[in-house]
Specification:
With 248 residues, the chain is an all-alpha fold. It contains 13 helices and no strands. 68% of the residues lie in helices and 0% in strands.
């Protein structure tokens, strides 16, 4: 297994590469090098960039995939003849596949880009022809390989069998895990989703909500209702706890 530091180095390399490509677009369109250098330094050293970049999690590769696809779409909007290059079409198909593969909710930007493909094809068919359709077909092929042979090889499962709203309550699970006092009302809200002993047993500071998914036969109860009740009664506190979840 690669060292976490190596993963971070690779992530930051691709982040710097994509940012440089964005900046060079500006340089090619007349923006001065000095201005672009200042913008690049400020953007790269923003605290959120640093915190996210040093996290060896799937969220950062997903973000890089979004940035890469955005860069390719900007290039396409500036010059539709990019679609005549095989390398560009393959890069576009790969970026869409990565968006789809890294996160379940990647389907949202994925669908949005496909709608954009339809609009571009209809509006500029004389220039685009069927090239974006071919990009889409290559992308479908990659997804088929990923969810077929690759999933079978690694014995991956499609159904995680757990509510996606569990992460929103993990901060309170930290209190249960550490035997910190919660009000009777809070305990009742937590128990409406899972028994308290399961909240405590499966909590992990560094793995977040993942242990609630991995190989556990957990009661699939009313997690969404529990979250809704928490938000109704303490909206600011619940939102803050979710934002601080990775530090709890």
């Amino acid at each position: 297994m690669p060292h976490a530091g190596a993963l971070v180095a690779v992530q930051l390399f691709f982040f710097a590469l994509i940012c440089t490509k964005f900046l060079m677009l500006g340089y090619d369109h007349g923006i001065s090098f000095k201005t672009l250098a200042i913008l690049g330094i400020v953007f790269s050293l923003l605290p959120n960039q640093v915190f996210l970049g040093i996290s060896p999690l799937k969220d950062y590769p997903y973000t890089l995939s979004l940035l890469w696809a955005t860069y390719l779409l900007v290039c396409l909007s500036l010059n539709l003849e990019e679609l005549q290059r095989l390398r560009f079409c393959l890069a576009l198909a790969l970026s869409l596949f990565l968006i789809y593969a890294f996160r379940h909710n990647g389907i949202v930007p994925y669908a949005a880009v496909l709608l954009l493909f339809v609009w571009i094809t209809l509006r500029h068919f004389s220039q685009v022809r069927r090239r974006l359709i071919r990009v889409f077909l290559v992308n479908i092929l990659l997804i088929g390989i990923y969810k077929g042979p690759v999933f079978s090889w690694f014995q991956a499962t499609y159904d995680i069998g757990m509510s996606p709203y569990i992460p929103m309550l993990c901060a309170a699970a930290s209190c249960v895990n550490k035997n910190l006092p919660l009000s009777e009302e809070s305990n009742a809200i937590m128990e409406s989703a899972l028994p308290l002993d399961q909240w405590a047993a499966y909590y992990d500071r560094y793995l977040g909500h993942d242990p609630y998914y991995w190989g556990k036969e957990i009661l699939q109860t009313n997690t969404l209702s529990a979250l809704r009740l928490s938000l109704q009664r303490r909206p600011l506190l619940c939102t803050w706890k979710h934002c601080a979840n990775t530090r709890m």
